[in-house]
Amino acid sequence: MLDSMNIRLPTREDIHAAFKQGEEAVVALFFGVAQQVEALGEQLEKQAVALKEVQARLGKNSRNSGKPPSSDGYPKPKRTVSLRKPGQKTTGGQPGHKGETLKRSAHPDIQEIHPATTCRQCGSALHTVDTQGYEERQVFDIPAIRIEVTAHRAEIKVCPACRTENRGDFPSEVTGPVQYGPGVKAWATYFQSQHFVPVDRTAQIFADLLNHPLAEGTLMKAGQELSDHITPATAAIKDQLRTAAVLHTDESGVRVQGKLHWLHVAATDRLTDYTIHAKRGKAAMDDAVILPHFTGRMTHDHWSAYFRYENCTHALCNAHHLRELRFIEEQYGQRWAAAMAQLLVEMKHTVETTATHHPQLSAEVIKTFEGRYDDVVSAGYQANSLQVVDPDWKQTPKKKGRPRQTPPLNLLDRLRDFKPQVLAFMYDFRVPFDNNLAERDVRMVKVKQKVSGGFRTLTGAQQFAQIRGYISTARKNAVNVFSAIRDAFLGQPFIPPCPSE
């Protein structure tokens, strides 16, 4: 091992020779040994840092970092442990929860009378006996579904005065000799866009349930038409997102034509907008025409591209911080990380408790929390005071940028330098503790990709993103998704109302 490190320790003969030569030779010999030991220590320190980085990299999974569960590989890590602390509530429905029990209908659609014809005791006939009352049982079922064909006939009349042939006017939506109506198109797009059923399986559903198979081209064309019909709704969603007080943003990779593209989401608790773009950075966000005009508070995961928008303020997702803190505690054994995680959760609980009675925390409570926050950050820096930044940095002066740091130091720098953004939820109760809203909106498109594997064309991907934004917005506003799709085909897409309306 020493040979591989180019280290040669003096032999017994070397030591005897030095003593024969005198004191200076002995000093020189042991000085050389000291230099080699120092070099050995530096190399061991470099290897320890490199080994720690490798162990930390291998220790990352979906529980303690932003990596998706699909990247965990096999064997899978232990099930995801919730970052929430267990409460005192029992499992199941809580007191006051509105149940979904099947209730009797006051106005049934069909009535079937089951007569009492014979006395069960003596066998006498009861046909002529008056009915005293009824015992009723109700069955909820789905009637047979079939496609209904409507024949539109325009009258043809010849004017008796001038012999001109005249025809009646067809409805504006009836344009061809044979065509599908809005109900069929709504079914087709509902299955594909809301439940991510592939095109061929959607065609199979029509064949099995309606005994009317549809061509795959017809199903795909329905999606294209819906995308055109909801254009006014998409424009209204973008307009309202630009003026929102708090905006959630996130991005994730999607496969389009076998290449990596990016899904960008901008959302609130009422609105959702999706954009699929070949790029991930500011150019893609500019093309979505929301963030360049946004002046409120943007919540995100600290990706640097978001900070290029200086016309708005920022808030950072603390769910990401909790995962990173868990990673540092598990992989580096640093206790300050657990203390910071506990402090952030305590802040969150205090905000939630206070918000039920007051619009903000008192100045004293804020000052106390800020002091504790600063103390934990200082303890973190003290725990990492001996960390080597990059053992090879001095040997490679041509490297650009700042030296590479360890993950604990990177997170400490963020917690220190972006303290107002980390604690934004504590200063303004409108700001959420995390960015889970945007992550939930992203998840649905990832489910689509998991089912289909990707998109064949960029146009198809963009149309799907537009439809999903429309559907998500309808659901957030408690609007029936199927009705919203059908209304769009009828020329009346759901337009989300402005908050002031």
Characteristic key phrases:
501 residues, Nucleotidyltransferase, domain 5
* Terminal-residue CA separation: 77 Å
Q: Give the helix level as a range of percent.
A: 40-55%
Task: Kindly state the number of beta strands.
Answer: 7
Q: In DSSP terms, counting alpha (H) and pi (I) runs of 4 or more, how many helices?
A: 16
Please indicate the percent range of residues in DSSP E strands (runs of 2 or more): 5-15%
* Rounded radius of gyration (Å): 35 Å
Q: How is the CATH topology of the domain at 228-316 and 436-489 named?
A: Nucleotidyltransferase, domain 5
Q: Return residue spans where pLDDT drops below 50 for at least 5 consecutive residues.
A: none
Describe the sheet with the most strands: 5 strands, mixed
Order of neighbouring strands in the sheet with most strands? 5-4-3-6-7
The CATH first-level class of the domain at 228-316 and 436-489 comes to Alpha Beta
The CATH architecture designation of the domain at 228-316 and 436-489 is 2-Layer Sandwich
Q: What is the structural class?
A: alpha/beta
Summed up:
The protein is of the alpha/beta class and 501 residues long. It is built from 16 helices and seven strands.
Structure description:
The strands form 2 sheets. The protein has a 5-stranded mixed β-sheet. A two-stranded antiparallel ribbon has the order 1-2. A hairpin with a 4-residue loop joins strand 4 (259-267) and strand 5 (272-277). The chain is elongated. It has helices at 12-21, 23-58, 182-194, 199-210, 216-229, 231-242, 282-287, 318-332, 335-355, 363-383, 407-417, 419-422, 424-427, 436-452, 458-476, 481-489; strands spanning 156-158, 165-167, 246-256, 259-267, 272-277, 297-300, 313-316. Helix 1 packs antiparallel against helix 2 and helix 3 crosses helix 5. The mean pLDDT is 87. By secondary structure, the protein is of the alpha/beta class. 23% of the residues are buried. The protein is built from 16 helices and 7 strands. Among the domains are: 1-50; 228-316 and 436-489, 2-Layer Sandwich (Nucleotidyltransferase, domain 5); 318-386 and 404-427, no CATH class.
